[in-house]
């Protein structure tokens, strides 16, 4: 496929891959060889958002082989639902925990999450018009219960909506907590957590100032790290 | 949350985030500020595998803000199925195409894909024992049709299995083709592709030698880039 | 020149340059173009050691164009001596200050400096056997005066040598101070410092724990930054 | 020293060092520890220019510990002159070859070299007004002999100047050749080259297109690598 016919963003990605090959295959040939011959052995599953500004590998300065990564809208974990239909996030959790045997699962939320904005609109009774985003983000719907006075009247939900849109970080962090809770509904997760061989972490990255917050396992509250 | 109580892999991730903050918020303060004040405007949606060795941002040397990323087992795109249940990958595609208005969608497959190994076992009649991985990878099941002589007899499927396990890259590339085809079942994708404002790409990264292969839009065959 | 005939370390450097070209000329074409068309405009002259472990660009996460760099053994600045012979470090200082008009000159010392080890041996009367290193490091010879009880007897200088070799960081920092003082012997430096358009900095990097120390302009003592 | 009192370029360097510490001391603690406990063992001495755009470590994607580096104006090596005065570049060559035992010495020139511009002005009889740059770059003066018709008349040298200023890359490469020749005047270099344990390389980096040129050891001509 001739390189020159490509549009600019694609040409730049191809140049990036050329640089990756120079760096990891030629400059430091040992760095990839072991990952190829021995396979991957990551210790960490990170469930992050698709948002282009919060890339798990860039954010944590990871090298190839370190992080097994799921990325979806709003870094959500659905509850355990083994009904034979397509569950991409659940499949990745199962693969990471049962096949790769990771020791840590991290749910990584972040500020300014568009998916959580959608959830706020949805839960405060605003009109939505999409096929998949609203059903998907409704996974974290119950996270808003403490913050919603009721959807029984237009006035009230309007007030809720305004208030929540002014503090979306509260919802973003509540949604991370829900996802961590949902992780515990997977039997193969719960067993290993109870056996002490798997740790669950809830993180929230404040895009505005670069601070990381994490759930304190004792108080279950988010605290700056 | 005291830093020192954390285990080694987590401490290292936290150190990585500290380095990210030093680099992107203090060393080059302009680099994140714009992404925070103006929001994200990625031109590319990349659908990659959760495999720790094939990180889209590392592989393409991307900076924050460049790639909107979905990662799931075997970089699969399910068919359009707007039934109100949880479809994480479809939600991300919808968000990228309809809300962010990306210009390119890239499905990025790779060599040595564990999910595709699972698909080969599944399609050649071997016993599987999982809740989510097998149903999930069956999305690409039809990709194997041309390579399976039939699952009607144990002998035959055994031969198929052996043959396919010796050339998994054929299946990996066929699965990328299936995912690209499935993208076209989404009305909001098809419309924009037909209007010429959205391009679909099928890539396969050969982990063993660092070469990238891409679907030639004319022949629909994979060629080295 | 065929790539394949080269020995391994050279092949790896060439691969690194290939990666640089992919990254800076193709992946981010704007990053070098401006430096090529408009020339360099660094604000900083850094005078560092040749030591492979203390690279100014890596240490400060600099991009091309940011630092004008001199590197010599023990990051020394000789006194102003315009005698028409070859003065490499002085030429670079002159070029940076008079032609490029930098705003800052930083002398960057570091722990475990082999050149300073040589200076300690030299100043404590130990035998040296070299053509250039001893004369060169003697630039900072006076830096040791406060720490040497006298070179008049073997016993005494032996004691000095042992003591100094146990705390070479004292000498390393004193040598940085001498180099900063020597900078002020250059008329074109002194004038701009006195005019307030040029700042001089003395830094010392503790290789062992990664801490940076800097001369406090008021007390002239090194303090952790 | 309070961080906040510093000017912007210095604050950014300090942030870079903070990032370096996070990356090399905390994120990958093994990467520096060995260099601290075992000392440096670089295989390569690189003699590069002080120019901010051609940083040896960035250009070759080196990690700490890989390159012992001299940087001066125009990447020059003076001839062997063991007269007891200050010879910074010669001291570094001596340290690299005799103490560290490097296997390769690379002289790295580049396009758009300000020092070489100065040399062209100097050798074509133009007025210069500096203390150190002109004497220093005169090291490579003989490199211009084949390109200068004579400095005996104003007209002729004017024509030479115009011609050379239009093709400075010829002079830049000739100067690299002179520096490589000068390396052979150091007895400790010559001995090891003749014994086959040390290799000398002359490189020239074309800043404009990112191509590297190298002296072909057989023809002594520069060829693209």
UniProtKB/TrEMBL annotation, chains A, B, C, D:
E.C. numbers: 4.2.1.1
Q: SUPFAM superfamilies, per this entry?
A: beta-carbonic anhydrase, cab
Pfam families, per the entry: Pro_CA
The parts of the chain that form a coiled coil are none
One GO term under biological process is: carbon utilization
Q: Which PANTHER family match?
A: CARBONIC ANHYDRASE (PTHR11002:SF76)
Indicate what this protein is called per its UniProt record. Answer: Carbonic anhydrase
């Amino acid at each position: 496929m001739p390189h020159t016919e490509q549009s600019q963003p694609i040409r730049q990605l191809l140049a990036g891959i050329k640089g990756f090959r120079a760096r990891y295959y030629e400059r430091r040939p040992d760095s990839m060889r072991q990952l190829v011959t021995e396979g991957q052995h990551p210790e960490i599953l990170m469930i992050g958002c698709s948002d282009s500004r919060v890339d798990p590998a860039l954010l944590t300065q990871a090298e190839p082989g370190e992080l097994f990564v799921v990325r979806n809208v709003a870094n959500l974990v659905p509850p355990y639902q083994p009904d034979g239909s397509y569950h991409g996030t659940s499949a990745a959790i199962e693969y990471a925990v049962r096949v790769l045997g990771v020791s840590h699962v991290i749910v990584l939320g972040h500020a300014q999450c568009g998916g959580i904005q959608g959830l706020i609109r949805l839960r405060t009774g605003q009109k939505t018009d999409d096929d998949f985003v609203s059903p998907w983000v409704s996974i974290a719907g119950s996270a808003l219960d403490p913050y919603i006075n009721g959807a029984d009247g237009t006035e009230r939900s309007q007030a809720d909506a305004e208030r929540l849109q002014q503090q979306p970080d509260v919802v973003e962090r509540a949604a991370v907590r829900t996802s961590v809770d949902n992780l515990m509904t997977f039997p193969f997760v719960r067993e290993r957590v109870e056996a002490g061989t798997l740790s669950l972490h809830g993180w929230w990255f404040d895009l505005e100032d670069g601070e990381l917050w994490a759930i304190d396992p004792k108080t279950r509250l988010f605290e700056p790290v």
